[in-house]
Design goal:
It comes from Ruminiclostridium cellobioparum subsp. termitidis CT1112. The protein is an alpha/beta fold. The chain has two domains: 133 residues, ornithine cyclodeaminase, domain 1, CATH 3.30.1780; 187 residues, NAD(P)-binding Rossmann-like Domain (Rossmann fold), CATH 3.40.50. The chain has ten helices and 15 strands. Strands 9-8-7-10-11-14-12-13 form an eight-stranded parallel sheet. A seven-stranded mixed sheet has the order 2-3-4-5-6-1-15. Helix 2 crosses helix 10 and helix 3 packs parallel to helix 4.
Length: 333
């Protein structure tokens, strides 16, 4: 590309690429390998709250991946009430940069990227930490990232039963219908979190709450369960970490600070600390620590969302766009 040009890659451009499940998973897992090999820089996310009276804020994520020779910054709006305006709750842009010169390389609609990389991280966590014979998935929430959670998890486990729940009947019914059509097997919409989660081998909590409220109860966690709570506002009980044999996060630097996150209380109260944390996922992916070691272990994976995952997936899309001559060149200077 001309050094004075930046490639803009729209949501429609990304949709036209029809990325495969394998491409998404491999891209995100490679970013974890780089992280576990100390070949990355991750700056803790920061937030911008424009107006406390509005149920929304911006997250700013920044990182660098040495093997890809690329840096990136993503800004994503997180607005709970966007469904009332027929908008996704999360809208994002990702900028990719040459780390040697600071030259912008590409601007990407990162809304779908955010959804894909979140689903990929959930699925990769399950690949290493859930029981291999997991056959029942219980999923709370029907937000944008939820689709890729289910699609990518099912690509690994081929579940016998998938249950979904969200607070609004219209959203859970539409979500179940979409997944049923996509997966070619029944996905059950249930009207309460107990019927959704109790007895599930893998429990995912991806709710959109304004105030903390327990929808994933500790007593439903049976031996061998894999639990992934990643809502912005907590939907779990305070004693959830007490029943876990292992707690894993995507990056402790991101999880230990800030005001948001499903396990914020657990960090602030000292229940989850550097001492009680078992590992970061990248340590397990790179073999530095073991993942699941028995079928009876209860394991929790909390991911806040890593800039590295966005950047790796954005880099893949950027390279595919160049090869296919997709996107719009913008004059930078």
């Amino acid at each position: 590309m001309n050094n004075n040009k930046i490639l803009f890659i729209s949501g429609k451009d990304i949709e036209s690429m029809n990325l495969t499940n394998e491409e998404i998973l491999n891209s995100v897992e490679q970013s974890l390998v780089a992280q576990g090999s100390s070949q990355t820089v991750i700056e803790p996310r920061v937030h911008l709250i424009p107006n406390p009276s509005i149920n929304g804020h911006f997250n700013i994520l920044r990182g660098y991946i040495e093997p890809l020779n690329v840096a990136g910054v993503k800004i994503v709006g997180d607005y709970v009430d966007n469904y009332k305006k027929d908008l996704p709750s999360e809208l994002a842009l990702l900028n990719l940069y040459d780390p040697g010169t600071g030259m912008p390389l590409a601007i990407l609609d990162a809304t779908a990227i955010t959804d894909m990389r979140t689903g990929a991280l959930t699925a990769i966590g399950a690949k290493y930490l859930a029981r291999k014979d997991s056959k029942i998935l219980g999923h709370l929430g029907a937000r944008g990232t939820s689709y890729w959670n289910v699609i990518l998890l099912d690509s690994i486990f081929n579940f016998d039963e998938i249950r979904v729940n969200s607070r609004r009947p219209e959203s859970r019914e539409a979500f179940a219908k979409l997944l049923t059509e996509k997966l070619g097997k029944p996905v059950i919409a249930v009207d309460n979190s107990e019927d959704c989660l109790k007895g599930a081998d893998i429990m995912v909590e991806a709710t959109r709450l304004i105030e903390p409220e327990p929808f994933l109860l500790t007593r439903w966690v049976a031996p061998g369960t894999f639990v992934v709570p990643y809502g912005t506002i907590s939907a779990v009980e305070n004693d959830l970490t007490d029943v876990m044999d292992k707690i894993i996060v995507d990056d402790w630097g991101q999880c230990k600070g800030g005001k948001f996150g499903s396990l914020r209380y657990h960090v602030d109260s000292g229940k989850l600390s550097q001492e009680t944390l078992y590992a970061e996922l990248c340590e397990i992916v790179t073999g530095q620590k073991k993942g699941r070691e028995s079928n009876d272990e209860c394991i929790l994976f909390w991911h806040r969302g890593l800039s590295l995952n966005d950047i790796a997936l954005g880099y893949l899309i950027w390279q595919k766009a160049i090869a296919a001559k997709i996107g719009t060149e913008l004059t930078y200077r």
